[in-house]
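Peptidyl-prolyl cis-trans isomerase: structure tokens wanted.
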Amino acid sequence: MTKEQERARARRRYEEHQKTEKPPVGDATRDKQVFGVILAVILVLAAVIIVPQFFGRDDTPTPAAASTTPATTPATAATGANGLLEGQKLAAGCTKPPPAQTAPKQQTAVPAKAAAAGKTFVATVKTTCGDMVFELDGAAAPQTVASFLNLAKTGFWAPSPCHRVTTEGIYVLQCGDPTGTGQGGPGYTFGIENAPKDGTYPTGALAMARTQDPNSNGGQFFITYKETQLPTDGGGYTIFGKVTKGLDIVDKIAANKALPPTPTDGTPVSPISILSVSVTEKKA
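Answer:
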């Protein structure tokens, strides 16, 4: 084979190879690809940064049960000349509540459960709407009852507004925060005891309020004025007693619902405050 023939064969192989190759990217095409990448990056950044500004972000932890968590929204209405919040009115048989505490007494040590273990107590709770009586079950919830005894003895709740009422789906009156904001506590916390496995809280149950943290029980508690079903996620809520007298007072407060804008969950329209709590052991 001559050199001319070899060169011709090499040329043909090169031409055949070129037919199967993708054409090189031109400047215009390359610019379009680069622009497309930049545009994609801009759109991603917009989705991450700009869109939440318009639609808002919800990275607030969801409470285990909105009905019983201490973290409630305090009333924003101004206090009137009569000492009531705007929109509040006294229910029949109630007197004007005293101002909430601004600096409730704080403690650091959790009371020893031995003070209540295996015992039953009777608590008389004086309120601006009359007396309520609780029976406290130290056998079922010794730590919780020991804490209740301690807070009653030290005057933690004197005075203390009941800052939350719920009237739809769940039926509770929540009390025990001397500041009335839903954020106050005694300075110590403890865990869950005696929570119903099925999440059913009977009428008149006395139970502890808490946040999502199962070890956040403190001084806040709630009363169920109708049977209420609550989530069991996180361990439920400690039942430590029951109301034996004065549940009609809770019914009266609940009947007037909560202040706007959420009349089914918030600060009661008809205020009620704890004035004092005294506890005695119930003898067999």
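Residues 13-30, 41-77 have pLDDT under 50 and may be disordered. The two ends are 123 Å apart (CA to CA).

Cheers.
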